[in-house]
Amino acid sequence: MRMSDTYAYQNAPKNLRIRLIHLPMILRCLAFILLIIVMMRPQTVNPWGNKSVEGIDIMLAMDVSTSMLAEDISPNRMEVAKDVAKDFISDRPNDNIGLTIFAGEAFTQCPATTDHASLINLLQNVRTDLAANGLIEDGTAVGMGLANAVSRLKDSKTKSKVVILLTDGSNNRGDISPMTAAEIAKSFGIRVYTIGFGTNGITRFPIQVNGMTQYMSAKGEIDYKTLQEIAETTSGHFYRAASRSELQKIYEDIDKLEKTKIMSKSMTKYFEAYQPFAVGVLLILLLELILRMTVFRKIP
After folding, report:
1. Where does the chain have alpha helices with state H?
2. How does strand 57-63 pair with strand 96-102?
3. Is 245 helix (H, G, I), strand (E, B) or coil?
4. Which of 17, 182, 209, 255 lies at a CB distance of 3.0 to 4.6 Å from 230, suitable for a disulfide?
5. Cα 185 from Cα 41, distance rounded (Å)
6. 124, 20, 23: which is closest to 78 by C-alpha?
7. Contact predicate 61/164, CB 8 Å
8. What's the pTM value of the predicted model, to 2 decimals?
9. What are phi and psi of 248, to 5 degrees?
10. Is residue 149 within 8 Å of 59, Cβ to Cβ?
């Protein structure tokens, strides 16, 4: 029996209509998927509420005397102290934190602020050559450093005020004794955490002689007794640190002791989000219907 077939057209070129012959079915499947999403009833969330944050005012009082260049802690005491303090500042975004530096004299490097980016930048720029260049007197004025930090906190209205005092020596300069400064801090309700940083052994540190760097050795003299008395007088804590890890642990302990208080109320409101998908279903079904009746119309 002879029958007609399409064998002669199997290699004929295909136009765009032939290539898109399955488009109506694809559109119907897409409409079915969107219909399922509509039935799942998607929603958006708009959380809102009032948040009350009570931060803590903290002043870092940091020794920048020449002895802070001692290399018993690699690369030196000053760089390690700055690195660890920077991490401490970054972990307390809600607190007002400032920086006092002292050697034979003391001054405020940065008042208490919540602009921690600027504070960290000023901290990174702290150098120990201020005394060597004659900008301030060399030595260790612990009392002056503490008094300067206290003067920046005494008018604060926050319930918690803290000074973190770090030094690697003993008080040998200044017009205010450490214990006098501690009594002033106590009268203003300021707690002082004292840190004796470094070792009391023989250490070497660089000095500049005629534009050249030379090294000299000296014996450390950290006055642990006075630092402990300052902490006890102000209801704070005294710490010793002879390495980077010990100093990090101390700042972690202080971070746990001085927590920021946060009180918040929040509410959540939900909104229906199925409407765009429903509109998509209608448009796709309409497009499929038009294509089936025009471009892809089949004649039996």
Report:
1. 16-19, 23-39, 77-90, 116-124, 142-153, 178-187, 224-233, 244-257, 275-293
2. parallel
3. helix
4. 182
5. 61
6. 124
7. yes
8. 0.70
9. -60, -40
10. yes
Q: Please report the sign of the dihedral spanned by the C-alpha atoms of residue 33, residue 36, residue 41, residue 42.
A: negative
C-alpha–C-alpha distance, residues 62 and 7, integer Å:
93
- CA 96 to CA 55: how far, in whole Å? 7
Joined together, the tokens standing for residue 268 give 């959540």
Place of tokens 């008395």: 229
Residue 8, amino acid: A
Place of tokens 């973190």: 164
Residue 114 DSSP symbol = S
> What does the chain come to in residues?
300
**DSSP 8-class letter at 284:** H
Residues 6+ apart with CB under 8 A from 207: 66, 132, 213, 214, 215, 216
Q: Identify the residue whose tokens are 């796709």.
A: 284
Q: Provide the residue-wise pLDDT of the chain in tens; the chain has 300 residues.
A: 787 777 777 777 777 777 788 888 999 999 999 999 999 989 887 666 555 566 789 999 999 998 898 988 989 999 999 999 999 999 998 899 999 999 999 999 999 998 999 999 999 999 877 766 767 788 899 999 999 999 999 998 888 899 999 999 999 999 999 999 999 999 999 999 999 999 887 888 777 777 777 788 877 789 999 999 999 999 999 999 999 999 999 999 998 888 766 554 556 677 888 899 999 999 999 999 998 888 888 776
DSSP structure class, residue 111:
E
- DSSP assignment of 193-243: EEEEES-SSEEEEEEEETTEEEEEEEE----HHHHHHHHHHTT--EEEESS
Q: How far apart are CA 57 and CA 113, in angstroms?
A: 9
